[in-house]
Each structure stands twice: as C-alpha cells, then as structure tokens.
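Re-run with default settings, no changes from the original entry. Doing this only to confirm the output is reproducible before filing.
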Amino acid sequence: MDAETQKNHLKAYGITYWTLEKQLKVKWLLNYRGGSFLLPDTEEIQRECQIRGVSFEILSDAKTESILEKISSPSENMEAVVLEKAPRIAVYSPKGNLPWDDAVTMVLTYAEIPYETIYDEEVLNDALLLYDWLHLHHEDFTGQFGKFYANYRTAAWYIEEKKEAEALATKLGYAKVSEEKLAVSLKIRDYVIGGGFMFAMCSATDSFDIALSAEGVDICEPMFDGDPSDANYQAKINYNNTFAFKDFTLERNPMVYEFSSIDMTQKRQIPKMTDYFTLMDFSAKWDPIPTMLCQNHTALVKGFMGQTTSFTRDEIKSNVLVLGENKTNGEAKYVHGIKGKGFFTFYGGHDPEDYTHKVGDPKTELDLYPTSPGYRLILNNVLFPAAKKKKQKT
C-alpha cells in the first residue's frame, strides 16, 4: 500500500473487505509500506485482485515470518492488527440523494464495499442496532435546512426538500423538523454510546454537535420553523452534550451560510495550491486506533472545501484526538474520539478530489483518482470496526 507499487489503493480496501466476507482473517500491517494488508494466499483472492486492478505480491512463509518479526520489534513503529469480520455499513441519507452527492457512497461503490441506506424513519425505529458503522454526510441536524436560505430559498430543489422534510417530521409525529432531527441525533448518540462507530463529514460534523448542545432550546429563526428563536439562546447551549466541540458561538443570521464558529471556511487565508493538511504520527504499538485511521502512503494530504471545511482548533474538546491538521491556519481537518463504548470520527470537507464542490457540480470520477490519499482516510474508517479490539494504553 505504498506510493510506488500500489496501482489502486482504494480498490485494495474492497479486496480486503471481500476477503473478510469470505470468513477469512486479514492482518493490517500498520506503518509497513503504507499500511499494507496481509491476506491468505488463495487463487480466488489473486484472481479478484487481477480483475479489480489491485497490485499484490505473493510471499513465502519465510518472508511472511520475517516481515511479522520486523513489525513486532520494539524498535519499529509498526503493528500487525487482525481484521476479523466485515462490518455492516449504513449510510444516513435521504432516499432521493444521488450517490455522487456523498464522497463516502462514491468510494464505497468504487471499492465495491456493500452498504445500506437508512434515514430518519429507520433510525427512530432502532434500525441502527443492525449496523457496526454509520456514515453521516452533508446533513443538517439543526432544522435550518442547511442554512441555504440566503442563496437558494427560491430554488425549486430547496422548496421541495423543505416541504419533504416538514412532511416527514409530521408523519413521524413531530411539530417541527428541528424537533424530529434532534430525536434522530439522540438515537445516533445512543448508538455510539452503546458501541457503534460513527463517521461524519462536511456539515454533519458540526450540525450534529450543535443539535445535541441545543436540546430543549429553539435556535431556529421563523423562516425555518414558523416561530421566533429563544431569546439569548447562545447562553442556553450545553457543551457537555456534544461529542467533539466546545465553547462555539452559533451564527444567528439566517442570511449567513454558516452554522457556528466551529467551521473555518470563512476564516481561511490559504491559496488552493498550498492547501494541505498533515496526518499526525502515533505509536502503532501503544495507540493502534489512531494509527489505523491515519494509514496512508503520504503524510501530506490535499485540502478540500465543504460547507464545513475544517474545525477551529481552540473549540475542540481536550479528550478528542486531532488526526490531521493545518498548523499554519490553526485548524483541525480530521478528528477522532471515544463516546461511551463507541467511537466517532469527524472529517471536514465535502469531496477529497473536488476542491470547492458546488451545488450542481458534476460527480467525481474515482477512476481518475485510484490512489487518492484523502479518500483512503474514509476507507480506513470503514475497516476500523473489523479490527480485533485491543484496549488503548494512552
């Protein structure tokens, strides 16, 4: 899985998942040649690699032992983690969403990793219990319809989506979309606390935490929910309820395309050509989880924008690990934490290979980016629940 010899990093994850589906175990060799996978040598796996265009090497037993010995050496920052079971994957998305609206569904499809789409009705009916891994993308859990009001309130798609969201809330027994989305957020929170893994990108990251922090508080202006927001609602925000963020200030103005001070999009002064973030270096033997989530063939990853592009460093809780950051701009791009028995990862931005993704832009063709480091980070998270759990030492 290094830069020099792997032709298709993304489909390699699909091969690994496919192998796990066959009830075969895989070793993930953390920090060894870009985070390589050690698979059983069968003709079927070799053939599948050839069909999918994934580069592989056949190792003798002696060579395998030599590699594993090197990895186990205390002087090497490497570890072999056993992957045991193909995780059951759910993507939280409205039924009408096209697959290319979401980087995760695009890369899962490209890597040939199966997933199921669920939405509010399924979440509220406890369908999350069927899954090991849940993805949230450019969703708004606050009931403000993505804060698209200023630019798109007269657009047919905005009017239709608002109408559909209100109809769904009514059908599910809620007076407002914000109340229904809060109920969904609480179900997702309980899913994570109970041992689930949640991966969120773009506006799902901060809007999820904002919804949790505003439980019992009306933060929606009249054009969103038909009545005024609570007076001085900022003072009523409860940061204890959030997963990752603290001390943020909500954006009250409905004409501003922003939820809060968490997001760095409006505060960035970085030209596209120099917009990169750095993956942090962890001890593979002592901290295998963050090491796993940072596996890549480069430590420097191209930045990319989104409604929520990256996170204000000072507004991240101290118990949340920053996995990727742009130090010059004081921003975190990629963060991870533990909540109860479960885990969550927040990844800023919309599409790792579409720098400014706008409404209506054409979809990204992943055939053009088979070695994308930014997309690899998503797939690290997909495979993480397959790992045989070891207790974190730090």
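The radius of gyration is 21 Å. The chain has a mean pLDDT of 93.
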